[in-house]
Amino acid sequence: MTIVAIALAVLAAVALAYGALYQHEAIAGQDDSHNGLNWAHFKELLNNRRWLVGLVITGIGTVGNIIALALAPVMVVQPIGAFSLIVSVLLGIRHRGLKVNRRLVQAVVWCSVGVTVFVALSATTARSEVQLGADAMPLVWITAVVVLIGGVIMLFFRHAPQLVLITAAGLLFACVATNTHLVSVQLLRAGFDQVTWLNVAGLLAAVAIGSWFVQNAYAAGPPEMVIAGLTVIDPIGAVILGSVVLGEAADAPVWLVLAITATGLVACLGVVVLSRYHPDVKDRELQRRIARRPHQQTDTEES
């Protein structure tokens, strides 16, 4: 079953990369979308064929990932999504004319290698346990806190930087993955009557707010950054929840925990580097500086 889960997770990663390409192109083509999406933008997207195709592809990948989470521990399945970052960069080079620089390559390598080793180490110790009743409640409360923080950011920080948006989305979808695994195991091993519906409610709330962050992140910068956030921050958060809250790493020795932590930090460093040195990010920063110069010159002349 683990092999099947890994294969489904790989296919889901490829679907995520293609879905991101289509949705980013649709959102980037909207007028004033870089200032943050509103309901008018979303209504327009519902009539955009390219965005809808991206949504369908992403949905197919999501279904594959849900099945994978039902078949194997979170610590094994979720980090495999990092493969989509490589696919996303290759698609960017082919379809968007993405310029490859040394920093971009370094960031992708750090993210990919860090998460790959993360998966390999996690797989050696991960085990699934059925969490029923009160045992499932810690994850409910953690999800509620993350959803609340996400809601505050959504309401009061509409023009948040892309790194903030993808970090929030990654943490929310980490909660989605962990709750999906917990509910799936409850359903398959204990039966429908043992499903904790508060976990289902938390899962749906995290999906809704997380999706809002993802779409706004597409408007705020390159799709590779969104993929990096969802394939590094999401799995690392999911593995932490899986190991600490669900007890998937209860038997892991200290050295293994430290090694997993180190590889996770390497992957996160890759995301930070990508957020600073991605060619599209640097081009946007240059355009902002050029746009500010006339205002600065006008202020100097008036003084």
From TrEMBL:
GO molecular function list: magnesium ion transmembrane transporter activity
InterPro entries named among the record's database cross-references: Mg_trans_NIPA (IPR008521)
Cellular localisation: Membrane
Keyword tags: Membrane, Transmembrane, Transmembrane helix
Chain ranges passing through the membrane: 66-92, 104-124, 136-156, 163-183, 195-214, 226-246, 252-274
Domain of life: Bacteria
Pfam families per the UniProt record, alphabetical: Mg_trans_NIPA
Regions annotated as coiled coil: none
One GO CC term, this protein: membrane
Membrane topology: Multi-pass membrane protein
Record-linked PANTHER family: CONSERVED INTEGRAL MEMBRANE ALANINE VALINE AND LEUCINE RICH PROTEIN-RELATED
Name the UniProt record assigns to this protein: Magnesium transporter NIPA
